[in-house]
Amino acid sequence: MAAVFLSLVLLSSVFSALFGGMAGRWTAFFAVLTTLMGVGVSFVYPTFATVSVLRIAIDIIFMVALVWLAVAFRCWWLIWMAAFQINGTAAHFAALLSSVHVKPVYYFLTTVWGIPILVVWVFGIAKDRGWRLNPVAHLTRIVGQLRDRT
C-alpha cells in the first residue's frame, strides 16, 4: 500500500511541476521532500505503535509549507491542501493527548488525509488551467502541440 501511495505522490509531483506553475513546482518540492523524510522515519519507526516526534515534525514542516504557499500564491487548491494537512497533523496531537492509544485509529487518522490532498492538488491545477476533466482531449491536444514543434 505504501508503494502505491509513494507512486501517486511522485506522479502528482511530476504533474504539478509540469503544469502547476511556480506554486506547483514549490508544492512538488515540499511534497517530495517530506515524503522522502517520511520514508526515512519509517525505517526507524516502522509501525504506528507509538507517536513519533519525527513524524509529527515532518507533518508540521509540510503543513507550514502548504500554508505559506497558500498565502503566497493564493491558489484555492493550496488552501484545501493545507486544510487537509492540518487535519492530519492535528491527529498526532490527539493521539498524544489520548489516554488510550489505538494503533489502527492513529494510523488511519494521520494517513487518511493524504488521498484528498493528492486529489485536490491534481484537479485544482487542472481546473486552474481551464481544463475540462477530459484527459483524452487534453492528451490529444498536448501530442498535437508536441508534433507541431518538430
Count of helical stretches: 7
Give the percentage of residues in beta strands: under 5%
Runs in which pLDDT lies below 50 for 5 or more consecutive residues are: none
Count of domains: 1
Radius of gyration: 17 Å
Mass-distribution shape: elongated
What oligomeric arrangement do these chains adopt? single chain
Q: Name the helicity range.
A: over 70%
Please tell me the overall pLDDT: 88
SS elements, strand count: 0
Structural class: mainly alpha
Euclidean distance between termini CA atoms: 41 Å
Helix/strand order: HHHHHHH
Q: What's the story with the biggest beta sheet?
A: none
Give an overview of the whole structure:
It is a single chain. The protein has one domain (2-149). The longest helix has 24 residues, at 21-44. 27% of the residues are buried. 83% of the residues lie in helices and 0% in strands. It is elongated, with a radius of gyration of 17 Å. The model has no long low-confidence stretch (mean pLDDT 88). It has 150 residues and is mainly α. The N and C termini lie far apart (41 Å).
Task: Break the fold down into its secondary structure elements and pairings.
Elements: H1 2-19, H2 21-44, H3 53-73, H4 76-97, H5 103-111, H6 114-128, H7 135-149
Transmembrane segments: 26-48, 60-86, 106-126
Keywords: Membrane, Transmembrane, Transmembrane helix
